[in-house]
From TrEMBL:
Location in the cell: Mitochondrion
Pfam assignment, any one: GatB_N
Lineage, top ranks: Eukaryota, Metazoa, Spiralia, Lophotrochozoa, Mollusca
Classification via InterPro entries: Asn/Gln-tRNA_amidoTrfase_suB/E (IPR017959), Asn/Gln-tRNA_Trfase_suB/E_cat (IPR006075), Asn/Gln_amidotransferase (IPR018027), Asn/Gln_tRNA_amidoTrase-B-like (IPR003789), GatB (IPR004413), GatB_Yqey_C_2 (IPR023168), Gln-tRNA_amidoTrfase_suB_CS (IPR017958), Gln_synth/guanido_kin_cat_dom (IPR014746)
Annotated protein name in UniProt: Glutamyl-tRNA(Gln) amidotransferase subunit B, mitochondrial
Functional note: Allows the formation of correctly charged Gln-tRNA(Gln) through the transamidation of misacylated Glu-tRNA(Gln) in the mitochondria. The reaction takes place in the presence of glutamine and ATP through an activated gamma-phospho-Glu-tRNA(Gln).
Amino acid sequence: MAASMQKISSHICQLCKRRYLTFKHKRSSSNLKSKPWKSVVGLEIHAQINTESKLFSGAENKFGGPTNTQVSLFDAAFPGTLPVLNKGCVEAGVLTALALRCTVNKVSKFDRKHYFYADLPAGYQITQQRQPLAVKGHVDYCISDKNSFETKTANITQIQLEQDSGKSLHDEKDRISLIDLNRCGTGLMEIVTEPDFSDGTDASAFVKELQKILQTIKTCDCKMEEGSLRVDANISVHKLGEPLGIRTEVKNLNSIKSVSKAISFEVKRQIELLENGGIVENETRSFDTEIDETVPMRDKEVKTDYRFMPEPNLPPLHLFDSESVKTVSSKMSVINIDDIQQKLPPLPEDTRKRLEQQYSLKRRDVAVLVDNSGLVDYFEDVMRLSPTTSAKLVSNFIINQLLGVLNDRKLTIYKCPVKTEDFGKLIDLLHTEEISYSTSCKVLDEMFEHPNIAPKDIVDQKDWRQISDTQILTNICEKVLEEHPKLISKYRKGKLKYLHTLVNKAVIDSNNKANPRILKQIMEDLLDNK
Ligand code: ADP
Ligand code: MG
């Protein structure tokens, strides 16, 4: 009896357990469904090093030369040729590593990465697989929209030095491929990030900041359209709280827009695929800018065996600091990391912070100044020559007016005909209310046409000076009030907009020359005292 009771109760227990498990499963699968997708992005960026010659040869390193004119015997992989490490490339790599707040390895090593490709005559690329130049850095970057600014940090996994390949040019019509080896052996810095980005906007904001940094330290010109900065984006999606998903890699993105669009498309594609019961394949894709979609690469890679091996013709690369350099007898080919650190100029974020503090400018305005090459120098030159001018007014006028006029005329700030001294004088006229804001815009246009005439002379010649004389303005206001008794009574009933109507009428009566601020004050006083 006791035994059968025990059996029954164990049976009930089993039932309960099963019910509970079914319930738990249902709950967790419905949780899974309702949990939002999260996308994850990590970047691998190839930045061509801005040096006169290539990484391991003396051949010229310049974009756009006639095909196959910048190729040394080593670049063409002639037997018996040997690599000679370009010290300038290493110094650029170290400067970049320091700018990205990385730890520079005192010893790094070169490896051969083998693969067969027509524009890689050696059959292998010299890279740094085992021990890269630098590791563990970070970069702060800004995400901004109309209303907000958010500062984020991306972690840099490593920076390695490697060779670029040549270029294959495909002639679709004649169905032939031609090889240009000019790019073969150009020094590259491969900058690898942790999977720290959440979407395309995020990743592209980082690339923009990286571009600014590399351009500031002049280690890469970052002309994405010329291929000197190329981005590979690794993208995956997963449910919140779950492990990272399987990633695809979209190769060779060559504009900031493409980075953003390719990632957004890929995230959407992966989510749709998974929601429809599919699986994401670990594959290499490219971005078709005609249709704004990622597509599998034709030569779909099977897991390639690169047969990595140490590069036998290059010794380990030793770097020094101010302490260890003392032990070296010949300083000729020595690179001292501390010396390079001294050469690190203020980075874009340093400049933003300084401008904010020094001139009490808003973050948003500072960001525009720093984003547009040459604007910070122009702004600071104006401030240096006219120290009493309002910095806020100068930066506003540069951002809201000068940039527009330059754009209309397809000019860069470097070609701006308006000298900084004259620009400062124009802002002084605006600041002291000798001219109105709208007049100052007209004066700026005139200054572009006649850069040799001082803004004050333009204002005098055109008779554009603002009327700030209170007696004259009072007369104008009284006349308007006499002519519009109905507007006065409407104003009295508490409708403030009639004050603006009256002021506008007075401005028109003054031929648009009345100082609107003083005019409004006078009009208000007159109305309240009537
Ligand atoms: P591999 O050795 O195949 O190149 P890595 O581990 O070096 O792979 O990673 C390459 C890039 O892919 C890095 O930028 C890294 O941040 C990114 N990455 C790795 N895993 C993921 C993932 N699950 N989702 C998105 N990006 C990833
Ligand atoms: Mg890798």
